[in-house]
Design goal:
Radius of gyration: 24 Å
Number of domains: 2
Distance between the termini: 68 Å
Order of helices and strands: HHHHH
InterPro entries: DUF805
Protein name: DUF805 domain-containing protein
Largest sheet: none
Keywords: Membrane, Transmembrane, Transmembrane helix
GO cellular component, one term: plasma membrane
Pfam families: DUF805
Structural class: mainly alpha
Shape: flat
Length: 154
């Protein structure tokens, strides 16, 4: 249990080194707590999607957030609080772990920022892929939805 809470005692300590035990105990702790806090949200979300009234009722679109139970809302707030409380110690213990492996903490920051950038790029690609076709012909050819330009299926 000592290893789980050591990063909290070294909250803003980005210098020095951390053993694997400290890093992995803290990581496992945050993973387990996060799963426990997400579980009620997932259960409510599945209940909403599988409820007969959600898909077949008079207002099939509805606002699914209205169907979330109070436990889900408490979980959402607790999850947000947990992320705020564990972000800095998680960052610090990871930087110290990189130091222990002989790497600069800036390597972690670069990898983290790169992951965020790739996530944003992936989201942008997803959104662009969802956009409807542009009307008419453009420099890449005719609109594939145009009934006169359906040579793809002929």
């Amino acid at each position: 249990m000592h290893w789980v809470f050591l990063p909290f005692r070294r909250y803003f300590d980005f210098s020095g080194r951390s053993r694997r035990m400290e890093y992995w105990a803290f990581t496992l702790f945050t993973f387990i707590v996060t799963i426990c806090l997400i579980a009620p949200i997932v259960v409510d979300f599945v209940d909403i999607l599988t409820a007969p009234d959600y898909l077949d009722g008079p207002d099939p679109v509805g606002d699914p957030l209205d169907a979330f139970g109070s436990l889900s809302w408490v979980s959402i707030w607790l999850l947000g609080l947990f992320v705020l409380v564990t972000f800095i110690p998680g960052l610090a213990v990871t930087v110290r772990r990189f130091h222990d492996a002989g790497l600069s903490g800036w390597v972690y920051v670069a990898l983290y920022v790169g992951g965020v950038i790739f996530g944003i790029v992936g989201l942008a690609i997803f959104v662009i892929a969802l956009l409807p076709s542009k009307e008419g012909t453009n420099k890449w050819g005719r609109n594939p939805k145009d009934p006169h330009g359906a040579e793809v299926f002929e």
